[in-house]
């Protein structure tokens, strides 16, 4: 069960990470990265960010690039939230493939 504090911090991190990725992907034409969900550990030390990448065939490539620059992203995030939270959590990034899953099910239902 997620506490109220965890939920508030997760929403704050999701909003700020979305803005960071929006600014970064504005430079790379044709690829969109959005933060679908952020889950924060109970001790607020780790944040798992689930990313949706469009087009989805570039998802692994983008995930590797984002993971490689995780420290830089954490620093930029810390600068943005420094007045709201004391310590910025470690960031872990994962691909959110729920939209691909929904699309696949939709496609299978239309086949019949």
Detailed description of the structure:
With 112 residues, the protein is of the alpha+beta class. The protein has a single domain (4-111), classed as GMP Synthetase, Chain A, domain 3, CATH 3.30.300. It has helices at 4-25, 59-68, 70-81, 98-111; strands at 32-40, 46-54, 90-95. The protein has a 3-stranded mixed β-sheet with strand order 1-2-3. Helix 1 (4-25) crosses helix 3 (70-81).
Helices, strands, pairings?
Elements: H1 4-25, E1 32-40, E2 46-54, H2 59-68, H3 70-81, E3 90-95, H4 98-111
Parallel strand pairs: 2-3
Antiparallel strand pairs: 1-2
Helix pairs in contact: 1-3
Straight-line distance between termini: 40 Å
Question: How many structural domains can be distinguished in the coordinates?
Answer: 1
CATH class: Alpha Beta
Given helix and strand content, the structural type is: alpha+beta
Q: Percent of residues in beta strands?
A: 15-25%
Cα-atom Rg, whole angstroms?
Answer: 15 Å
Assign an overall shape.
globular
How many strands, which pairing sense, and closed or not: the largest β-sheet? 3 strands, mixed
The total of beta strands comes to: 3
For the biggest β-sheet, the strand order reads 1-2-3
Question: Helix coverage percent of residues?
Answer: 40-55%
**Elements, N to C (H/E):** HEEHHEH
Low-confidence stretches: none
CATH superfamily: K homology (KH) domain
Report the CATH topology name: GMP Synthetase, Chain A, domain 3
CATH architecture: 2-Layer Sandwich
């Amino acid at each position: 069960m997620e506490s109220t504090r965890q939920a508030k911090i997760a929403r704050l991190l999701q909003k700020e990470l979305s803005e960071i990725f929006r600014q970064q992907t504005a430079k790379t034409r044709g690829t969109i990265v959005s933060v679908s969900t952020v889950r924060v550990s109970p001790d607020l030390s780790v944040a798992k960010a689930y990313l949706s990448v469009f087009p989805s065939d570039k998802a692994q490539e983008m995930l590797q690039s984002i993971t490689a620059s995780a420290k830089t992203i954490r620093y930029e995030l810390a600068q943005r939230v420094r007045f709201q939270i004391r310590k910025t959590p470690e960031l872990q990034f994962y691909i959110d493939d729920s939209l691909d899953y929904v699309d696949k099910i939709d496609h299978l239902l239309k086949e019949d």
